[in-house]
Write a structure and sequence with these properties.
Radius of gyration: 44 Å
Structural class: alpha+beta
Order of helices and strands: HHHEHEHEEHEEEEEHH
Strand content: 15-25%
Length: about 260
């Protein structure tokens, strides 16, 4: 029984795997890139054994004299063999393949309901975690669209028309025109002529009746939509968290795959 509990505590959750898979793949890429450069380096993959062999007809005295001026034997060890490079690459590649395989296989079974607060209504049932992640991002883009919707001017009264367009109250404004009229400075008499001066005067001509039209929505409606999106996005993110708690379907295929490929 105790052993069963111990095994249960060692079971990885999908969230734990997702948290490490990026690092595993980065290590695999880094090691692969490094080894690819190394195996192309002739300095690392080649060695040398060089020995000086004197002519047989030389006397001992001649040999000793010549050897004094020669270089000692040379030995340069091969730093990297292709089999060693493949083994090193395989060690990291097995980890990466198994991590990705486990993630992909777990994603086939990891799902959760999208549950709306506060009454626990199930909006979407058994949604795969990969789709939940997409939904969260996609609904976020929708929310950006809702956030820029125009709202009706709160200082006006609006009535919704049959076509979905809001009508404001009709407002009246006096209309007028400008006209040059004579301003009498002196009415004149039998000795002096009348004196006038042309001035501009405003003459009423009627009034304008203006009715504002708008395709916007009330600010309260916009807030309602934003709240609904926030609630749903929150429910989707909560579903992602629950889906990520499913046990990992451990896959070990890297060893078999690479052992065949590199045999």
């Amino acid at each position: 029984m105790e052993r069963g509990k111990e095994v249960a505590t060692r079971v990885r959750k999908l969230a734990q795997l997702v948290g490490t898979i990026t690092n595993i793949r980065q290590q695999d890429d880094a090691i692969g890139t490094e080894l690819k450069k190394k195996v192309q380096s002739e300095t690392l993959t080649t060695g040398l054994i060089q020995k000086h062999v004197p002519l047989e007809m030389l006397t001992d005295e001649q040999r000793r004299g010549m050897l004094l001026g020669t270089q000692p034997d040379v030995y340069k060890k091969v730093a990297l063999t292709v089999p060693d490079a493949l083994r090193q690459a395989m060690d990291y590649s097995v980890l990466a393949i198994d991590a990705v395989a486990s993630n992909d296989r777990t994603n086939q079974t990891a799902n959760a309901d999208v549950i709306l607060p506060p009454d626990g209504t199930i909006l979407l049932a058994n949604v795969p975690v990969s789709h939940l992640l997409w939904l969260s991002k996609y609904l976020g883009e929708w929310r950006k669209f809702i956030s820029v919707l125009p709202v009706l001017n709160p200082t006006k009264e609006w009535t919704l028309g049959d076509s979905g367009v809001y009508w404001g109250n009709t407002e009246k404004k006096v209309s007028a025109t400008k006209k040059i009229v004579p301003l009498v400075l002196h009415p004149g008499n039998d000795k002096h002529a009348p004196q006038t001066q042309p001035v501009e005067d405003t003459i009423p001509t009627g009034h304008y009746e203006t009715t504002a039209l708008s395709g916007a929505v009330y600010a309260s409606r916009k807030r309602e939509l934003l709240d609904r999106f926030d609630m749903t996005i929150g429910a989707v993110n909560d579903a992602v968290a629950r889906a990520n708690q499913v046990p990992v379907v451990e896959a070990q295929e890297g060893e078999a795959l690479l052992s065949f490929l590199l045999a």
